[in-house]
Amino acid sequence: MKRAILAALGLATTLALPATAEDIKVGLLLPYSGVYAALGNDIDAGFELGLKHFGSDAGATFEIVREDTEVKPPVALGKAKKLILQDKVDVVAGIVSSGVLGAVRNMIDGAGVPLIVANAGNDEATGADCSPYITRVSFSNGQVNRPMGNWMAEQGIKKVFTLAPDYAAGRQMIDAFSASFTAAGGEIVGQEFTPFQKTQDFGPYLAQAKASGADAVYVFYAGGEAIAFVKQYDSFGLKAELPLYGSGFLTSPLYVNAEGPAAEGVITALHYVPTIDNAENKAFAEAFTAETGRVPSEFAVQGYDAARALIEAAKTGATDREALALALRQVSFDGPRGKTSIDPATNNVVQPIYVYETVAGENGLTQKVLAQLPAEADPVNGCQMAPVSN
Amino acid sequence: MAHDLGFWTLQALNALQLSMLLFLLSIGLTVIFGLMHFVNLAHGSLYALGAYFAASLAAVGGYWMGFFLAPVAVAGVGVLLYSGLIKRMRKSGPMAQVLVTFGLIFALLDLTRIFWGDLALAIEVPALLEGRLAFLGVEYPTYRLFIIGLGLAIFAALAFVLSRTQIGAMIRAGVDNDAMAACLGINVERLFFIVFCFGCALAGLAGAVAAPLLSVTPDMGLQILIPTLIVIVIGGLGSLKGAIAGSLIYGFVQTFGAVLAPQLASVLIYALLAAVLVIKPVGLFPAKG
């Protein structure tokens, strides 16, 4: 009797299932406090907006569990464990800092949970440390800077002085630029790496750049360091004789207004700026501004596209961890950044890179796109993964 | 590069400017410490608060409003801290003081984040101080020259007050021997309160002055704390001379280290600190012989 009731119950639940859509549980692993909280919040806002725009196409419903990494690798590892083991999420998205990504990488890979990286740009994550479970929809440090070397050489710039903070991302960004710039016939006449998070005063380095005999300066700085750098560069009067170029984080829409007129005329390269001219970006930028009152940053679009990639994967019918991971590797769509796809050889995003100049607009500073450089897949960099199998 | 005199002049000015900023911070901290043996690790947070107050006030009434009112506002925070916390902690020994003021750093850090958000703020340099001045054969940003001038002016004023006025004599007496000073009828407690608030105001001023140069972020107080402590330890506790000497040494070692030996830049100053501690554990110019 008891068995019959159980069987009936079991039958009833299986019969009931097709009526409700599959539920996909997403763990958002982002810094909501600490130095990168502003980035985490922008990614979160973008992710929410992505679910809102495309969620209904997915044939699944999404439930979000948020965890704060505090930008501390050990904390993030604990939170990742909680998401995977206790909340039993089907997919994890987020991660701002490369250090945090490095800390959770083995846990994610071992547990076989798909992770959609929405910021952390360390080259190894889709190189030597790649995993079939980790796909990156944001950027890699090399990818953003490599095309700029060619482009600047094409503009007739011969000698460049480079500056960046002394940590892994700073070095990867500058190395990628230097390699392509010298390959295109340019010369690096000086290179300094400033102590990371200990340098607020760039005066000594700026005097060096000035004395180096370079035609231009190429830098990578982000956040508070970027603001201080751009303002000090202008205050020393270097902009007129020594034009400033860099990785686009230098003049990100997130904090370009704090830089003020000092940022005018600075030319940088990035995978997204709010002024990219296509229909998807127009819709995204308008919706994001309506929702938050801010212009979308590259971080916002990374969150938005992380949600989009997940939905595209779910559309293939994947709902469990294994199937989602496989589907994510083959995702491709036209998004705000233009044609965006995942390279299944490394699981890194393939996207165009935009060279833009920061100019004064009607409502403060805006980004004028000077060139769209073609999408290029990152070199495999020692990534060894089983190819996509169906 | 090495033969260009202008290059070295520029770097010397950079070093001087960094020194003056550190001087404004370390003088308040060192005198508070010297006078009452009170370790206020949250001094850097008051600097950050000064920068945030200045940013908010500048948004309303321009740079100079922030410049003059931010130190007053920070002194006000100092009064609150003193009456609410520090007065009670006076007798509880250095370990408890270090722990409480260390905790205060994080409390103030989160308060600034809650009030002002996570995005870095910035202040524009006032029109009067924009641009560059030709100076000793180089062009140097006017605003940085202003910081150097301000630091020197405050040093001169403090030197005058400490060595020539009655309150200066009282402070010096308190630093040298607070028990004896109290016996001579000096209200050391009240003196400490005044000095504490004044030290807070100077930290606020340093924040307001640094804001247009650097960016205003919640963790700027944490970043400046270590350099300030190094200045005090090198210079010697409790003395004006120690604060200025320590600041100059830090500024020049840091700046020229970054130029001449960039790989060693962040290590050099710690090596110097260790050397000073080995040779003269009390610092170069301590208040008490």
From TrEMBL, chain A:
Signal peptide start and end residues: 1-21
Residue ranges constituting the Leucine-binding protein domain according to the UniProt record: 24-359
Listed Pfam families: Peripla_BP_6
InterPro entries: BCAA_transport, Leu-bd
Keyword flag Cell membrane: no
Record has Cell cycle as a keyword: no
Highest taxon of source: Bacteria
Keywords, alphabetical: Amino-acid transport, Signal, Transport
PANTHER family (UniProt xref): LEUCINE-SPECIFIC-BINDING PROTEIN, PERIPLASMIC BINDING PROTEIN OF ABC TRANSPORTER FOR NATURAL AMINO ACIDS
Annotated protein name in UniProt: ABC transporter substrate-binding protein
Lineage summary: Bacteria, Pseudomonadati, Pseudomonadota, Alphaproteobacteria, Rhodobacterales
TrEMBL record, chain B:
InterPro entries, per the entry: ABC_transp_permease, BCAA_transport_permease
TM helices/strands, residue ranges: 20-39, 70-86, 98-123, 143-162, 191-214, 220-240, 252-279
Primary localization: membrane
Keywords: Amino-acid transport, Cell membrane, Membrane, Transmembrane, Transmembrane helix, Transport
Domain of life: Bacteria
Membrane topology label: Multi-pass membrane protein
Subcellular location: Cell membrane
Family, as annotated: Belongs to the binding-protein-dependent transport system permease family. LivHM subfamily.
PANTHER family named in the record: ABC TRANSPORTER ATP-BINDING PROTEIN (PTHR11795:SF442), BRANCHED-CHAIN AMINO ACID TRANSPORT SYSTEM PERMEASE PROTEIN LIVH (PTHR11795)
Protein name: Branched-chain amino acid ABC transporter permease
